[in-house]
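Lab notebook, bench 4. Still working through the backlog of constructs that have no structural model yet. Next entry is a single chain of 301 residues. Request: give me the structure tokens for it.
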Amino acid sequence: MASLVRVIICVTAVIGLGSSSEAEENGDITEDLKDLLHTSMINIVSLNDLVTELTEKISHLTLSQSETQAELRKRQLEMEDLKRELSQVKEELETLKEPRDGKWAEFGNWSDCSAECGGGTQTRTRTCTDPAPVRGGADCVGEGEETRECNTEECEPYTMYIDCDDLTSLYIDGSESNVAGLGQLGQTSRLQIPASTELIAVKCYDGNGGVYNYCGIIGSVQDSQGRDIAVTDSTWKCSDTLESGWQLPGFTEGSNWRAAIDQGDSHYMLNREPYRNIPSSNKRVIWGTRGVGTVYCRKTL
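Model written out:
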């Protein structure tokens, strides 16, 4: 395109050397060339037509009889330069017909980390658009996405509160906890558990045989900011049957493991101390099958 601009400037200068009568006639040619330059800037496909038209206009330029031999020689040299410029334009046009391979644009910004702590990932992408492949050119070679680790620092532990009527056994990822209060009626147990915890498992024994108003499990797990990670609700799974490995993360729950029963808003554990002091307004009182005195419940975090 740069060669094309030089061609038009050269033609305009040559036209300006003609006589006054020719200047009027050639003035139209100058305006035509300006229009053609504008058109070619808009649409590169029109370059072929432009070259043809320029060639025709050059062939019709006339030499003024009043020109001196020096001026004549100067114009002849300029005409030779113009022909060379036209040849370069034609070569540029030919290159536009060839296939063009794609090249990668710069990578974009990294995405937000997938975890606030404990190790997450973030990604960034790039596109094959600088330039994109055209006319059968090759696609970019390499990956369009990069991934890296982020926020690898260890998370602060969660705080768990748990209680049941009557006696509680608690397992964190399969390991039984001996925190105070688990074997005592009406005493909420509070403990720290790793933020990486996968499974909470609770066994609750009710001395009244699982009567509606006198049995239940209630609790919550919160992060260091006081946000709920888990609460006792119907997303827990409960069973009436003791099975080997039931407290482990890899245990497969059979058909006997069903959604926990919500004991309702009127249950005493929601309204009496110490149970109601367990953090979170979203906690519920849950149980397995009513009329069964011992239940086993699991919650995957």
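Notes after review: The longest strand covers residues 158-165. The chain has four helices and 14 strands. Flag for follow-up if needed.
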